[in-house]
Recover the amino acids of this structure.
């Protein structure tokens, strides 16, 4: 989006539409104020702004404000709401799933990943939503159009379904979707590739003998590392408990000393 989307005549028409909308809502607006609002909104397309004004007439109670118009203009950019964005982000956990997501979802997921990896899904969701709203707000302030892109999974059939669905939802153009489908279906995933993905997802798949040997070694290594981490956590817990007990003993001793001192002074 850029300022060339509206010419001077369109900006003047938009100012008149803003005045008319305000009047329809029972408010008198200075033409100069309407012209200033139109100038601020000229970076957006005429149909989008007109649709936002119509929505304001039906939805806004009270006086028309710039924030009312801008909120509705920006929500028309195709970016999903925070809850839908989180649901899309969680789909990326399935290595077989092909996911079509926005730049902001990808950035927010990266920000929340450390919390998610720690096993705190509630905290991860809160971190994701906070980051996502921040990234979306920044993109909208910069009038950056939404950018949907494809994150490819291992299942070839799901690739086709995901891209087809994204085209139907008008998240990616049909021409681009056709190119993506051509690229995604050009080379199928091998059984060994599926077996390796199964190690990550827990979905069973039979690999070849050579790969099976490698996967067994990887599983054994993962089990060993998990045991080492568990032992380290237990040792850390014992150390922390010992330190806590020592600290409690020290505090009790300090409290007793203070009480003795106060009693001595009292005498």
């Amino acid at each position: 989006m850029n300022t060339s989307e509206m010419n001077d005549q369109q900006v003047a028409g938009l100012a008149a539409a803003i005045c008319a909308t305000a009047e329809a809502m029972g408010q008198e607006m200075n033409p100069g104020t309407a012209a200033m609002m139109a100038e601020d909104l000229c970076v957006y397309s005429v149909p989008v702004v007109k649709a936002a004004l119509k929505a304001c007439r039906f939805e806004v109670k009270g006086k028309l404000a710039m924030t009312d118009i801008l909120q509705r203009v920006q929500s028309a950019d195709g970016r999903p709401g925070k809850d839908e964005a989180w649901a899309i982000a969680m789909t990326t956990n399935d290595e077989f799933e092909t996911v079509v997501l926005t730049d902001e979802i990808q950035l927010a997921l990266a920000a929340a990943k450390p919390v998610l990896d720690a096993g705190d899904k509630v905290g991860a969701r809160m971190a994701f939503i906070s980051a996502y709203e921040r990234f979306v707000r920044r993109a909208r302030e910069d009038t950056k159009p939404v950018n949907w892109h494809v994150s490819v999974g291992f299942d070839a059939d799901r690739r086709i379904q995901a891209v087809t669905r994204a085209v139907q939802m008008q998240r990616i153009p049909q021409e681009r979707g056709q190119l993506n489908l051509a690229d995604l279906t050009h080379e199928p995933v091998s059984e060994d590739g599926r077996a390796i993905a199964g190690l990550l997802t827990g979905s069973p798949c039979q690999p070849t003998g050579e790969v099976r040997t490698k996967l067994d070694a990887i599983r054994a290594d993962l089990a060993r590392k998990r045991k080492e981490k568990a032992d380290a956590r237990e040792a850390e817990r014992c150390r922390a408990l010992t330190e806590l007990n020592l600290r409690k003993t020290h505090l009790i001793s300090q409290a007793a000393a203070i009480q003795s001192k106060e009693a001595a002074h009292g005498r």
In short: The chain has eleven helices and two strands. The radius of gyration is 30 Å. Residues 223-267 form one domain.
